[in-house]
Design goal:
The chain is of the alpha+beta class and about 350 residues long. The protein has helices at about 45-50, 95-105, 110-120, 135-150, 165-185, 195-200, 220-225, 230-235; strands at about 5-10, 20-25, 30-35, 60-65, 65, 80, 155-160, 185-190, 205-210, 210-215, 240-250, 250-255, 255-260, 270-275, 280-285, 295-300, 305-315, 315-325, 335, 345. It folds into two domains: about 5-225, P-loop containing nucleotide triphosphate hydrolases (Rossmann fold, 3-Layer(aba) Sandwich), CATH 3.40.50.300; about 240-345, Beta Barrel (OB fold (Dihydrolipoamide Acetyltransferase, E2P)). The longest helix has 18 residues, at about 165-185. The chain is elongated. The two termini are about 40 Å apart. Bound molecules: adenosine-5'-triphosphate. Adenosine-5'-triphosphate (ATP) binds near residues 13, 41, 42, 44 and 45. Pfam families: ABC_tran, TOBE_2. This is ABC transporter ATP-binding protein.
Length: about 350
């Protein structure tokens, strides 16, 4: 088992693209760590640079305290699972799983017992003699994972591990992967562009944009307290409301009313962007005391057990989630409130969290 330390890392492609652009991060021993961000932000390049499949232009990569920046991929102690699984079609499941051991000239009898044991761990019993084409997508993914685990790397690197599975299988595989990672306790870094997947699986998430780290934190932290409006926009199944506001003496004024807010050192009168998640707003149809925003319902969308209600507040649209049975009809006058610690203030220009 091993941690990963990345310092001042940059990976520049020959065409001049700085896909990873000055990055520092540490992945703890045994951690399940997600690299999350929109397409093209550099997450795959970062994963491949950790694996040694791309070479670092600047900075260092350490695995288990050893500097591996210039070490060839096969000698870094990493096992990587590719998005398309990269299984050998002419080999059986058993041969695929133990291929890395065959390369290392491990004896056939040992290989057979490793295939048996890893096959058990990955729920591949009864499939060891099949070829990849005779397996479902979920089973193929588990063979690729089994091969990575059987190679006994110190670190497991997964590139979009669930993206080739259909929606139902993906949920199943997600639960399986989380349990497997916890059971094995192997340091694991996985790439995803799916924020829901990162929130569900990871111990910590690194959110990237344009090759840079925008926030590093637990799923709870990046969801409840994004440190900039980029992360605020990217995380959450319903987007965070980002509203123009003006700091007042006890909170912040926005179109249609005001909200309580901890203003810290931000002076009264300052123009800010106010961030509030739809999940953290309360919608009432009666009167309320204290700071509130007034408006009228435009539309409500069913999200399953919740509804996302869009409220027109003097020309600004604000989203709020309510239990499905409390969904108000369009045109209903409503009042929105929030507790002070849920209201975030961002710099209007830079988008960085102020308070
Ligand atoms: P996606 O989710 O779409 O896979 P990503 O976040 O993993 O995206 P990368 O694949 O790491 O992003 O790409 C980062 C940047 O580097 C992009 O601008 C991409 O066009 C560029 N890039 C990727 N591979 C190469 C390459 N081999 N040569 C030149 N530029 C590349």
């Amino acid at each position: 088992m091993a941690g990963i330390d990345i310092e001042g890392l940059a990976t520049v492609y020959p065409n001049g693209v700085r896909a990873v652009d000055g990055l520092d991060l540490t992945v703890a021993d045994g951690e399940f760590f997600a690299l999350l961000g929109p397409s093209g932000c550099g997450k795959t390049t970062l994963l491949r640079t950790i694996a040694g499949l791309e070479s670092a232009t600047e900075g260092t990569v350490r695995i288990d305290s050893a500097d591996v920046t210039r070490t060839e991929p096969g000698k870094r102690g990493v096992a990587m699972v590719f998005q398309d699984y990269a299984l050998f079609p002419h080999m059986t499941v058993s041969e695929n799983i133990t291929y890395p051991l065959k390369v290392r000239r491990v004896a056939a009898a040992t290989r057979a017992s490793v295939a048996e044991k890893t096959g058990d761990e990955l729920s591949l019993q009864g499939l060891l003699e099949r070829r990849p084409a005779q397996l479902s997508g979920g089973q193929q993914q588990r063979v690729a994972l089994a091969r990575a685990i059987a190679s006994e790397g110190k670190v497991l690197l997964l590139d979009e591990p669930l993206s080739n599975l259909d929606a139902r299988l993906r949920l199943e595989a997600r639960t399986f992967l989380k349990k497997l990672q916890k059971d094995l306790g192997i340091t694991t870094v996985f790439v995803t562009h799916d924020q829901a997947e990162a929130l569900a699986l990871a111990d910590r998430i690194a959110v990237m944009q344009s090759g840079k780290l925008r926030q590093l934190g637990s799923p709870r932290e990046v969801f409840a307290r994004p440190t900039n409006t980029f992360v605020a926009n990217f995380i959450g199944s319903t987007p965070m409301n980002l509203l123009p506001g003006t700091v007042a003496s006890h909170g912040v004024s926005v179109s249609g009313g005001s909200l309580p807010a901890t203003t810290g050192s931000v002076p009264a009168g300052a123009e800010v962007t106010v961030g509030i998640r739809p999940e953290y707003l309360t919608l009432s149809t009666g009167d309320v005391s204290g700071p509130a925003i007034r408006g009228s319902v435009v539309v409500a969308e069913n999200l399953g057990t919740q509804s996302l209600v869009t409220v027109d507040c003097s020309g600004t649209l604000i989203g709020v989630t309510v239990p499905e049975e409390d969904e108000p009809s369009p045109g209903t006058p409503v009042v929105l409130t929030a507790s002070e610690q849920r209201v975030l203030l961002y710099d209007k220009e830079s988008g960085e969290l102020l308070a």
